[in-house]
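# nightly structure sweep
# worker-07 picked up a monomer target from the shared queue
# config: single-sequence mode, recycle default, output format = structure tokens
# input follows
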Amino acid sequence: MLAPALAYILLLVALPFVAAVLLSLTNSSAGSLDVSFVGFRNFRAVVGNPVFKRALWNTFVFTFVSQVLVIAFGNILARALMRRFRGKTIARFLILMPWAAPISLATLGWLWIFDSTFSVINWVLKVVGYFGPGQWYYWLGDPTLGMVAIVTVHVWRMLPFSTVILIAGLSSIPAEVHEAADIDGAGTLSKAFYVTVPMMLPILSVALLFGVVFTFTDMSVVYLLTRGGPFNSTHVLASLAFQDGVLGGDVGRGAAIAIFLLPVLVVMAILTLRVSRRAEVA
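# output follows
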């Protein structure tokens, strides 16, 4: 019964990982069959590269900021959708749209939103008087604004996933618990911090850990929105590995960059298993 799952893990996870480790220790390049062992030369070259250091920093910033925003806004949306109001079904449908829409198609809309000339955000800011004479935001042409744009799109994309998980967590809390808290005179904040959050902690932890793993290894938003620009300033590790290993043809260097994702992923996997085990025990 476990054979299909084990075959999937072996063929699509274990073998590619072993291949990446072996390639990172060679001078392998696209279009060439001349491969020789170079040891840790690729890793030394990568660590000394300022573009890699910037990508590593961007990866942690991108992951931390986006996940904090996703959990915060997901909690607000989940609480709102738990209430009864007209148009609730339509609201749920609209909230789930970013998760269902293909990211490549959705990014085309965001490219227009962040366009240097036709950006709807810039024109709104200009109409309300936020911009002074000669002021204008070049969203995808500035390193800081480029990262803001990437985080914004990723939060928009991941928010439905977090909202659905948090709705399930809120629905699992018995109504009697809230009623007992009301009888004891607990206020809104007291119920939130001493009742809701502790009882939702396993679900919150799993949602956060899965989001961190997905965000840390994702390159689609970065590549589709900025392609790592301007001047390689918005690269994350996954997009930089793709640029060097696939587009640049330096397979060994790209594999070495990708291997740097391993320690964080191992830590996240261990934490996920521990949280899941505690949730099962509880």
